[in-house]
Amino acid sequence: MALGGDADDLVTGERRAGLLQRGSVGRTRIVTPAAFCAEVLR
User: Fold this and answer.
1) How many CB atoms lie within 10 A of CB 12?
2) Is the alpha carbon torsion for 17, 23, 29, 34 positive or negative?
């Protein structure tokens, strides 16, 4: 859905699926909820 919707970020805490290790898919960044909140609240 993130790719289909052309999302800037995919926020996930799921570490077992390996998404966070990828870091990005296409132009969509994959980040933890903590990292996302830290950026948004700056």
Assistant:
1) 15
2) positive
Question: How far is 19 from 30, CA to CA, in rounded Å?
Answer: 7
pLDDT at 30 over 90: yes
> How confident is the model at residue 27, as a pLDDT?
93
DSSP at 9:
E
Nearest to 35 by CA among 11, 17, 15: 11
E strand intervals along 1-42? 9-11, 24-25, 28-31
Asked if 22 and 30 count as a contact pair (C-beta separation under 8 A), the reply is yes
